[in-house]
Records
---
Amino acid sequence: MQYVNHITELIGNTPLVKLNNITEDIPATILAKLESFNPGHSIKDRIGIRMIEDAEKKGLLKKGGTIIESTSGNTGMGLALGAIKKGYKMIVTMPDKMSSEKIDILKAIGVEVIITPTNVDSDDPKSYYSIAKNMQTKIKNSFYVNQYDNLANRITHYETTGPEIWKQTKGKITHLVAGVGTGGTITGCAMFLKKKNKNIKIWGIDTYGSVYQKFHQTGIFDKKEIYSYTTEGIGEDIIPKNVDFTLIDHFEKVTDKAGAIMTRRLAREEGILAGNSCGSAVAGLIQLKEQLTKNDIVVIIMPDHGSRYIGKVYNDEWMKKQNFI
Ligand code: PMP
């Protein structure tokens, strides 16, 4: 009989799919790595179970314990798969800008969700980081995962996502494009890929309202760069330990509007119903297309599935309200 023993065994080995219509006028081969093929429909399944097992090994998480995390939604799902497998309770804090689909999905798989205000400083006691951190001190036998500074995050991508991309492209990849949230994906993949071939270009996709691009260019953490934006999962108002800026060749900023419109085009022109940050990554690549030649092989990480954004980028009323269409 052919079966796996648990849903978490289906994590990873996601497919690469060539983009055709949207990238028609780009001479390079553009391949999308569809992380929505993970069982929890996002790239964060990879780090969820891995960060739990790392905490167990370090004695930070014990039988019957509670896992706490601050998340834009996907990491909560990834962790929940691991928590279900291992019998832990899970609580997440989530900023109120995140899609209601993400909140309902987490509740559906038994996660307690605490919604926090988006428009507060990261060090404000009401921020989703602070509330999660505080809870750890109050709940006995609990573990705050902290995907931002927990280096098991980027190591997961160094050990799985990076090698998969190398193998799938037979080592021919020339450019990696990935949205940067915690920085785990881009840094872990870059650590592996640059070790194999230091000439591979690593392009990070950032949002307007995030500190990353300016910090990369100048080394200055400029609070004036921070304001709220609608794109979920990428851009930050902190510098997480998972980001290694020396491995990232360039940060490209993409507007909320350009990302949202490209997300809708991916569905209609490529048949790929992808998440909002996938559209941002493709839009960012197109902004950089002059730098590509016909022999280039570009891999774009597509972190999650469009079903999480049906009430947002795929909803005409929401798009009109944002003045995107
Ligand atoms: N896109 C989405 C939808 C995400 O949830 C995340 C994670 N915050 C990212 C992109 C960025 O991935 P990473 O945290 O590994 O930088």
---
Amino acid sequence: MIPKPPRRRACFVVPLLAVAGCGREQSSLNPAGYDALSITQLFWVMFAGAVVLWFLVNGAFYYVSRIRPGRFDERLARGILIGGGIVLPLVVLTALLVWGLSLLPDPRRPGDGLVVRVTGEQWWWRVEYWPEGADEPVITANEIRLPVGQRTEFRLLADKVIHSFWIPALGGKMDMFPGRETMISLLPEKAGTYRGQCAEFCGASHAWMAFAAVAMDPADFDAWLEAEAADAVPPADDAAQRGQEVFLSEGCGACHTIRGTEAVGQVGPDLTHIGSRLTLGAGRSKVTLDDLSAWITHTEALKPEVRMPSYDLPESDLAELSHYLKGLK
Ligand code: CUA
């Protein structure tokens, strides 16, 4: 048997790879919330309609060019032109417009109580939780947790450039502007861990500006938020104690806050509970000892143009610092 030429095979392989790239955790085709589901339903109906129309148009083309070439009855031709060219698009597009517009009010609805204020930074996410009636927020970074079955309201801002807030599995996207607050609300329906991604080009590390989005049972969420509101745990052993001293003496506290210590910097992400986060560097790495050390020593390589400089530390200092940070549960 003659093997198929590679280009032909590529026609099948490339789309398959592209589809395989639609991972479950960051895919609007894998909806886990009310808002994402309504968008997905609209998409599938439009997709099915497009497939039907594609076959109708190309079938008609094939029919008149290959099966029955020649002149057609003028009344029939006019009927097809007016019916298929004016009436059908008018009906279909009007129906889709009405359906599409009917989806807009839901993500604009106020939340059921919890308000989360997210600020897009270069290239990470500043996150503040405002439970109903709270006087001050619970501050964290680069991870968003939501109670399942409740609509959460997001108040979005940006620091220097425009970003876009998007958790494909939970809903649509919303731009974030410096100096102008925007809002979107999301109603997760299925507990799980998803991935959010900045969806507006915002500089060199735009593609590295992601976050973990975790939808939790409301009781688990309340427990998590309470733990998140607490100060950092004190160093658990001597190595962690020395790691904390390295953190403070190297000046890390000028940019980062670790509540309960003298580190109160506001430039970079809050690290009070960094050890319990699912990602490091806004979706860049995992929170392991190796990845923490790699991040501290190769920040610029891991996230081009990031404002945090790479640190050249003695090996033991680096190990103790990573150990301390990992212990900040
Ligand atoms: Cu922030 Cu792209």
